[in-house]
Every structure is written in structure tokens, then in C-alpha cells.
């Protein structure tokens, strides 16, 4: 258990005062010590002295994922190499990935955020938590691992894949909670059934901590009924550390710890704040991050915010379920994939043509990605072996760029759809 009532239930006015102080010192620090932020603030005509109240945050310029790509890998870090203790890496919008650095204090705030979150869904030191998010460059595994350990729970660090073994371990080690993507949870349910195991009756599983991709209330109901668990939504993005916030047992939105992040919902077109409770683009300022502070980071996720006090007593604002994206990012098995990355990878192979289609579907509860691409006329051959080699090469290239397996279909030159006006290259057949 990790319960900090003085912070988690503090009066909203005190919380705002604390956020203002944190914001002010962050802005001074960045203006004084970071060339990037200094220049950004000068270009926007704002000086740290202009931040006189919390709502003055809107005077500050926005940040976007492209700022990380343009400053690859670490040009806007605000910690020295000696201070850095970890990197995580996530998909960028084109060729270059996004690198996030952490100091020891950054890891500590991340851990605290998740320890509070896991406590808010009722997990304690008596729980056995199976972490089936990827460990490694993805943030899900290690983030939840340390959060769960901080509450004194016992962690089974299974990472993703090898589903039958996961189910055996879940049974043998009596896992009571599992952390994974909602689609992997459903897949596990199906595999278990095939193994003659009912997750409901033959395991101790009672809680799912499910996120990293969009899912719906309908899916939650189905999962709670079929698998006999309480399914909780967890949210975060690598740019802001990784998984950070969950719903509490009320299941009414993610508690965004206000001493950690300042949340705004803005109109994606104008950048202006939307009316309270209205939907818009989630925008966050991480108030405490040392290595890579993100100021007014436009995350691209569409949602709304409720600033009312939650029935659980926590006073920090709640962000509602994510209902979409303002851009074209796809999430395939929990991994972010931008159509622009696929295009970039394909166009680096001279033997493929300029036309391609991306088809996404869900089979046995797992996302599938099919990339259909025309062969360049000069590379087209009747020889099956040539085509097989090219197909393997394209699949290998996509795998190395996306970190996700894609099925590849080669098409004859001139056979894929042409578009007048905006191309519609992505067909997403998944239903939430
Ligand atoms: O997905 C971090 C994470 C790990 C969150 C484990 C939850 C659990 P990224 O790979 O950077 O980080 O992807 C972030 O995934 O902007 C959303 O579009 C989407 N996303 C994450 N959680 C949810 C969720 C991790 N609960 C991007 N519902 C975000 C809907 C989600 N979308």
C-alpha cells in the first residue's frame, strides 16, 4: 500500500497553489539553463515573470512529439550524462524514434505515481502482480514493475509473449493481478480456454491493469464478466515517463497526480482551452521531470477532464477514457505505429513502388497489420524466388523500424488503389 492522504486528498485550492509554485520554478529553471526552452519562450514573447498565476500556463508555447524527433536523441535533455540513469525509446513519427532520459529522481516520481495508482485500485503487499507489458525499450514493463514493488507486492516479470507459459505461471504463482494490454488480456483468456483452464475458476486473478491502447466500456464489461476480474484502465505515454495514471476503484477516469503533472484540455485546432468537461486534446506539463521536462506537451489523445472531487476522496483531477487521436497514429499490439514510418521504411527499398495500403484488423483478439505494396515496375519479376526474397526483405525492414511484425503482400505494378485528392491508405477494421 502506498497512500499519501495529505497529498492525494489535499484541498483543491492548496493543490493549485502547489502546482503554481512547481510551474514557476520549472519555468525559471528551463529559461535559465536550457537553450531550447529559452529560445522557445523568447519566440513566444513570454518571460518567467509573466507566470503570475496557474492559468498563465497558457502563455507558454506548446511542445509536440516532433520536438523530440527534431532534437534526436538527447539535444533537449536538461540533465548531464552523469545524472542520467536510464533511457527508454518509443516510436517516432518517421525514421527516428523518440528517446526519453531519466534521472534517479525521475524514476522515483514515476514509481511513486504508479504506487499511488496501484493502491487506488486496491492492490497491497499481499498481491502477486504479473507484469505482462514489454520490458526493455518500452516503458510498460519496468514502470509497473517498480510501482508494484513499491507497494510491497510480489512481481512476476513475465513481459509479453509465450502465452501458455504465462498462464501456467499465473496459476502456479497465484497471480492476483495482471498488467497488460486489454487485447492481450482477451487473448490470454482465449488461450487459457484452449488449455482447458478458466481464468475465472482456476486462477486467483482478480484485477487487470489494462492500457497502452484504446479500449471501451463495452470491452470492460465483457472482460469483467467473462474473466471474473475487475478491469482498470491505465494511461501514460513514454514522453511523460511511461504508464503513470490509473482509475481508482470508482472506475471514473484516471487520477492525474497534480503534484506531478499539470493537465489541460485544448482545442486541437486553435490550442485554446476547451470549456470545462468538454472534449479536446490532452496536454500535459510534467512539473517535476529533471531530464526531459515536457511543457504543454500536446499528446494527441482526445478526452475530457473532470476536476470535481472523486467519490474515493481524492481531489486530483480525473482524465476520462481516451476516445481517439487527433493524428493518424495506430496502436498495434500496444505499440505506436505511424503510417508515415511505414511509408518511410518502404520508400527506402528501391525495389518497391510508390503505392501501398495498410490494413489493420483483429484476429483472436490480437491486432494484425498487413502492408500491401506494389513492386517497382523495373524490379517486377515472374520468378517466385525473387518475389519471396523481396517480401522477406520488406517484412524485415518493417519489423526493424516498427518493432511489430507486419504481414507483407506484394502487388503487381499499377494494381493498388489510386486516390484523387487525399490518399486513404489506412483501413482499420478493428472495433473497440
Ligand atoms: O503506451 C505507456 C503505457 C504503458 C501506458 C503501459 C499504459 C500501460 P507509448 O508507447 O508512448 O506509451 O504510447 C502512448 O498510447 O498517447 C495513447 O495514444 C495510447 N494509450 C496509452 N494508454 C492508453 C489507454 C505507453 N489507457 C500512447 N487508453 C498514448 C487509450 C492509450 N490509449
Would you write up a description of this structure?
- By secondary structure, the protein is of the alpha/beta class.
- The chain folds into two domains: 326 residues, ANL, N-terminal domain (Rossmann fold, 3-Layer(aba) Sandwich); 103 residues, GMP Synthetase, Chain A, domain 3, CATH 3.30.300.
- The chain has a six-stranded mixed β-sheet. It has a four-stranded antiparallel β-sheet with strand order 10-11-12-15, with no helix packed on it.
- The chain starts with a helix and ends with a strand.
- The model has no long low-confidence stretch (mean pLDDT 95).
- The site of 5'-O-[hydroxy(phenylacetyl)phosphoryl]adenosine has 22 residues, from strand 7, strand 8 and strand 12.
- 5'-O-[hydroxy(phenylacetyl)phosphoryl]adenosine binds next to strand 7, strand 8 and strand 12.
Summarize the structure.
The protein has 432 residues and is of the alpha/beta class. The protein has helices at residues 5-8, 12-33, 35-43, 65-70, 104-120, 140-150, 163-172, 182-194, 199-202, 217-227, 339-347, 384-402, and strands spanning 84-90, 98-103, 128-131, 154-156, 177-180, 207-211, 230-237, 242-246, 254-255, 261-266, 280-286, 297-303, 305-306, 318-319, 324-325, 330-332, 335-337, 352-363, 366-375, 407-411, 426-428.
Mean pLDDT: 95
Helix content: 25-40%
Number of helices: 12
The CATH architecture classification of the largest domain is 3-Layer(aba) Sandwich
Q: Largest sheet, if any?
A: 6 strands, mixed
Amino acid at each position: 500500500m502506498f497512500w499519501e492522504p495529505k497529498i492525494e486528498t489535499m484541498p483543491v485550492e492548496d493543490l493549485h497553489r502547489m502546482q503554481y509554485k512547481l510551474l514557476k520554478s520549472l519555468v525559471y529553471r528551463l529559461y535559465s539553463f536550457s537553450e531550447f526552452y529559452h529560445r522557445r519562450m523568447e519566440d513566444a514573447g513570454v518571460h518567467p515573470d509573466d507566470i503570475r498565476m496557474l492559468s498563465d500556463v497558457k502563455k507558454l508555447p506548446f511542445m509536440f512529439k516532433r520536438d523530440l524527433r527534431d532534437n534526436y536523441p538527447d539535444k533537449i535533455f536538461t540533465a548531464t550524462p552523469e545524472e542520467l540513469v536510464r533511457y527508454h525509446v518509443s516510436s517516432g513519427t518517421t525514421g527516428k524514434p523518440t528517446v526519453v532520459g531519466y534521472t534517479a529522481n525521475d524514476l522515483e516520481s514515476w514509481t511513486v505515481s504508479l504506487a499511488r495508482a496501484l493502491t487506488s485500485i486496491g492492490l497491497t503487499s499481499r498481491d502477486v502482480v504479473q507484469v505482462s507489458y514489454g520490458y526493455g525499450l518500452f516503458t510498460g514493463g519496468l514502470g509497473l514493475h517498480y510501482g508494484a514493488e513499491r507497494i510491497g507486492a510480489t512481481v512476476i516479470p513475465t513481459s509479453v509473449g509465450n502465452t501458455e507459459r504465462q498462464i501456467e505461471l499465473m496459476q502456479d504463482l497465484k497471480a492476483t493481478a495482471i498488467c497488460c494490454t486489454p487485447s492481450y488480456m482477451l487473448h490470454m483468456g482465449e488461450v487459457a480456454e484452449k488449455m482447458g483452464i478458466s481464468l475465472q475458476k482456476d486462477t486467483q486473478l482478480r484485477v487487470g491493469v489494462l492500457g497502452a491502447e484504446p479500449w471501451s466500456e463495452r470491452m470492460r464489461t465483457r472482460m469483467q464478466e467473462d474473466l471474473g476480474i475487475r478491469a482498470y484502465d491505465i494511461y501514460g505515454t513514454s514522453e511523460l515517463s511511461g504508464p503513470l495514471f490509473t482509475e481508482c476503484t470508482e472506475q471514473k477516469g484516471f487520477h492525474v497526480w497534480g503534484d506531478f503533472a499539470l493537465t489541460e484540455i485544448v482545442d486541437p485546432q486553435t490550442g485554446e482551452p476547451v470549456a470545462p468537461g468538454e472534449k479536446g486534446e490532452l496536454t500535459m506539463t510534467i512539473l517535476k521531470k529533471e531530464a526531459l521536462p515536457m511543457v504543454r506537451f500536446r499528446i494527441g489523445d482526445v478526452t475530457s477532464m473532470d476536476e470535481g472531487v472523486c467519490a474515493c476522496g481524492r481531489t486530483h483531477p480525473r482524465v476520462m477514457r481516451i476516445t481517439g487521436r487527433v493524428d493518424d497514429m495506430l496502436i498495434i499490439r500496444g505499440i505506436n505505429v505511424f503510417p508515415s514510418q511505414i511509408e518511410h521504411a518502404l520508400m527506402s527499398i528501391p525495389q518497391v513502388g510508390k503505392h501501398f495500403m495498410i490494413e489493420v484488423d483483429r484476429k483472436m483478439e490480437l491486432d494484425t497489420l498487413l502492408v500491401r505494396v506494389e513492386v517497382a515496375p523495373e524490379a517486377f519479376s515472374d520468378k517466385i524466388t525473387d518475389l519471396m526474397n523481396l517480401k522477406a526483405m520488406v517484412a524485415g525492414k518493417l519489423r526493424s523500424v516498427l518493432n511489430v511484425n507486419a504481414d507483407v503482400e506484394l502487388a503487381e505494378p499499377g494494381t493498388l488503389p489510386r486516390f484523387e485528392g487525399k490518399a486513404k491508405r489506412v483501413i482499420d477494421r478493428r472495433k473497440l
